[in-house]
Amino acid sequence: MADVAENIWNITDLWDWLNEFLNSTGMPPTEKDLSPCSTETETLNKYVVVAIYALVFLLSLLGNSLVMLVILYNRATCSVTDVYLLNLAMADLFFALTLPFWAISRTNGWIFGTPLCKVVSLLKEVNFYSGILLLGSISVDRYLAIVHATRTLIQKRHLVKFICLGIWGLSLILSLPFFLFRKTYHPPSSSFEVCYEDIGNNNTTKWRLVLRILPQTCGFILPLLVMLFCYGFTLRTLLEAHMRQKHKAMRVIFAVVLVFLFCWLPYNLVLFTDTLMRTGVIEETCARRKDIGRALDATEILGFLHSCLNPLIYAFIGQNFRNGFLKILATHGLVSKDFLARHHITSYTSSSVTVSANL
Question: Which residue windows are transmembrane per the record (predicted)?
Answer without folding.
Answer: 50-72, 84-104, 128-147, 159-181, 213-231, 252-272
